[in-house]
């Protein structure tokens, strides 16, 4: 059956909502309708997409005013005579139709200090307890769809805050690294407060509401980060203790320096972040050779995901499924 | 890694020109409206009750309403457990030493901040609905930078929860009635709300980097984390139990009805 859609078409110079009547079938998602529009009525409609499975974070758009992934919004969630309005993300400059320029996010990513390995531990020798990395792992689910960045009113409604405010996606990055059991940087809290604009967040939780990966951005990243900043910056007892015992003078002032990166498009394009570890030689032993690892294993090459005692092809009588037959649908 | 970003043709850096302020079609205004009405009603009730200066104590069963605990003015009479250092002036609440801290605890609470920023300050009223203000600096400067003092309000709230527990214990010495049950439910809910606080979660273990080195604190943190996911519900439940407890004791003290006794 046909349903009524309104899709924003245009570019940076202007545009408007156009009306379409599109066929909708059972089980389809909004991205399927965009593809049907491209195939039938508007072959030049621009839209980013990749995996159609909610894992690549490309098809971010606003559906009936709500920031959503096109591929994860089922048509069955709308009533049959409901008009569905599809617009590009509002917070970022539009390129064309549903495609926006999200380079703001990549610039903020470059300004976030990278993981700093602990001194004296060779690559490959990092060891962590599972309960220590669990908290950080939640934030690794992020697919960088930037729906949280788009919905956050700090930059959505106040363009002038874009310079000072990094956004929820980079607060979870900051929290991930600050909670990382092996990260050696001690100044991430100061960085989040002074250079990421953590104080701009007023914890109204819209980032958590729109996250398609259901990361508890506010409760598990932003609020813990705010509390960690309080430890260092606003807690009067801690402040007094640091003054009395002069702990603040022990810390190097170098690590407090603001980032000098001006982003992917600026003059610093392509230069590595200043705190990144410099390239190292391979870790060789006193004999000048690397440690033997996989060479001493009983089997060469990577292990089989099916186990080492199975050979392929399997005998047909052991197979527990029927091969699809070309006759099946007749 | 990509080092060049897509530059749109024509040098345009403009956002999509969408005229509607919001295209949301659901009832996004309902949640902030309910919050607005609920919080306003509660604050009105509490203000009226705090400055009423009567019907706060049932001497027979030693029921003291949480809005008047600890009772510290000359009006308290037998309700004064800790002396009466404060003068009998209508602007001074009987619990002048605990109420300001409880107010601060709720005002700086991470849940209530979300609730009143959305429903009272409209910043933003709902997700993807425009902020009602021209400029925005969040919690970066005076006065909102003091929201960072939440943990001190939490410490005070723990002490006050101890006082409320004491009130429930003292009331228990007179026997058992419906009033006792209401007081205990209120106290248990107040503890649940206080311990589910985000600052408590941080203090209990959230500030650690290595849970494996602190197994006990990890257990405590896990427990507080479970409570913490219910912080919003507990915030509303405690508003309800506080008002109910107070109303029940007001009705008893005023003689509108008598306590339903189970023992004694």
Report on this structure.
The complex is a heterodimer of chains A (330) and B (264). Chain A is an alpha+beta fold and 330 residues long. Chain A is 28% helix and 11% strand. Chain A is built from eleven helices and seven strands. In chain A, the strands form two sheets. Chain A has a five-stranded mixed beta sheet. A two-stranded antiparallel ribbon of chain A has the order 6-7. In chain A, α3 (130-139) packs antiparallel against α6 (168-178), α6 (168-178) packs across α9 and α7 packs across α9 (217-234). Mean pLDDT of chain A is 85; it is low at 252-272. Chain B has 264 residues and is mainly alpha-helical. Chain B contains eight helices and four strands. In chain B, the strands form two sheets. In chain B, strands 1-2 form a two-stranded antiparallel sheet. A two-stranded antiparallel sheet of chain B has the order 3-4. In chain B, β1 (57-58) and β2 form a beta hairpin. The interface between A and B is large, with 70 and 58 residues.
